[in-house]
Amino acid sequence: MKIRHISTRFALLLAVSAVVPLLVYGFVSILSLQRGTRDSIVSGNLNVATRAAEEIRRYVSTNAELLKALAADLQNTGLQQWQQDRILKNYVLQFREFREITLFDEAGAVIASSRVGPPRVQIPKTTPLMLSGVAMSPIRVDDDLLPTTTFAIHLTRLGESAGWLVGEFALEEMWRMVDQIRIGTHGFAMVVAPDGQLLAHGDPNKKALVAQARNVLDHPLVSAVRAAQQDEAPVSREYVNEDGSGELGVAARIAALGWTVIVEQPTREAYANAAALQRQLVVAILVVLLGMISLGYLFGRGFIRPILTLKRATRDVAAGQLDTRVDIRTGDEFSDLGDSFNTMADRLIQLQEDVKRQERHAMFGRIAAGLVHDLAHPIQNIGNSARLLLRADEDPESREMFRRTIDRELATLKRFLDDLRNVVKPQPIERFAMDINGSVAEIVESMRAEGERTGVSIEASYGRGPMVIEGDRFALGRVYRNLITNAIQATAAGGRVAITTARAGNRVEIRVSDTGTGIPPERLSAIFDDFMTTKRRGLGLGLAISKRIVEQLDGTIEVESQVGQGTAFTLRFPARDDLSAQEVAS
């Protein structure tokens, strides 16, 4: 869309110079705000996940160290069985995370146990996770739907194997720790084992997944942590969860246990404050932008009002209202411009009068020269013939020739006067069905003598078939005569003038061509104008009148010309194919 109003351009110029920097600043500020907000939120959530991971590691390690200290008390002390049994029961009572502690000999027989009855724990058959010298079995969910693991310590006495101390450890406190982690309103934490098993989840709606031993290996953060196991740096991601909502998640590994602590928060909540601040910033920028554009537009309209006044006045002058004037009183350059415009308008009126006067003089001189040229020869012939006709010694044959000369020249004068009359007041044309071939042949035959007198051959070729149009025989005869006369006058002796008729679709064509001097291209567009001629003398009315007659008969006239090769005029008229018209023409 083109910007046509200068006030709009002025406002846009103001926007480019003042508002665009504001927009750039606002855009950069928004990007910085988004980036800074994300970095801040991710950093805070990572801090929470890292601290939670450290708390869980310390919690598990501390209890493993407690069992390790108990093992140190039991080995190399020479305690009796009932004493060992008493120590284990007291230990379980004191540290309630341990539900059972049992001491086995190397063969797997029970030596002492905190449990009344057969023990539930067993010596590990495979090498589980080692935590500070304490073997830790994978997490399982017990009958009370609580996460439980088993610690086992291999005892030695004087460098020889002395049995196993095995304790069942409940991670209920870890659940409480995870439940207490909250990020906003809907942000929760969860703990995942190395094999992808979900160990704990802070979301009450998802705790059942822990009891189901849900595997979350396909979780984006778990996958990212497993892909970078050698790198203990925290991981952060934005992703879409299984509910279809966006999440911002961070993960911190517990290297000693192989576990991963994940903290998730909906992105909508995480970026809520930033989004609100961003909206406020956008609104502020838009308000400032609108205000500056409005102010610039109003200021621009006042600034360019003189220009608009000059624009309207210029348009009026271009439309011919030369009496238009402007009244600009701004006291600056616009006032000077207004005064210059008024001076120019006054000068244009004076120049217009001068041009009209010069055009009248030129036109009168041209008409006078044309009249002298076109009338001098016929009048002189009439005068000479009249004087000779009055001589008594002339024979009857000469007197008859003088009479025919006078009649011919009088007919020439009559045609000339008719042309002048047609210029002032075109004569009405009566239409009748007429045969083109007959009307053209009549004029061609009458012009052959003129061609022979100048040494130009006239050739005619007539088309076959019905060549009937609706026209005026006398008016078209004048057109043919004008075109053929012009062709003869433009052709040197030995040249040729060709007249052809043909049927072209639903139109009839008459073509008059010559091998004359041709018409320069720059003059072709004006040859049908009144008083326009390519000859040295004459009024230049023939082609103008011919074109007027052709158009009155619903026809067209076209011209083709090449300098030095000749000119061709083509007339086209609607054909009449009905039998009644053909009968009338015949």
Report on the architecture of this protein:
The protein has 586 residues and is α+β, with helices and mostly antiparallel strands. It has two domains: 1-320, PAS domain (Beta-Lactamase), CATH 3.30.450; 426-585, Histidine kinase-like ATPase, C-terminal domain (Heat Shock Protein 90). It is built from 14 helices and 19 strands. The protein has helices spanning 6-74, 81-94, 172-179, 208-211, 220-227, 267-270, 272-318, 333-389, 396-424, 436-454, 473-490, 521-524, 542-552, 579-585; strands at residues 98-104, 110-113, 129-131, 134-136, 140-141, 147-157, 160-170, 188-192, 198-201, 235-240, 246-254, 259-266, 432-435, 457-461, 468-471, 496-504, 507-514, 556-562, 566-574. Strands 1, 2, 3, 4, 5, 6 and 7 form a seven-stranded antiparallel β-sheet that branches. Strands 9-8-12-11-10 form a five-stranded antiparallel β-sheet. Strand 16 (496-504) and strand 17 form a beta hairpin. Helix 7 runs parallel beside helix 8 (333-389), helix 8 (333-389) packs antiparallel against helix 9 (396-424) and helix 10 (436-454) packs parallel to helix 11.
Assembly type: single chain
Strand content: 15-25%
Distance between the termini: 63 Å
Q: pLDDT under 50 segments (min length 5)?
A: none
CATH superfamily of the largest domain: PAS domain
Key attributes of the depicted protein:
14 helices; rod-shaped; single chain; five-stranded antiparallel sheet; 51% helix; Beta-Lactamase; alpha+beta; Heat Shock Protein 90; seven-stranded antiparallel sheet; 586 residues
Give a brief rundown of this model.
The protein has 586 residues and is α+β, with helices and mostly antiparallel strands.
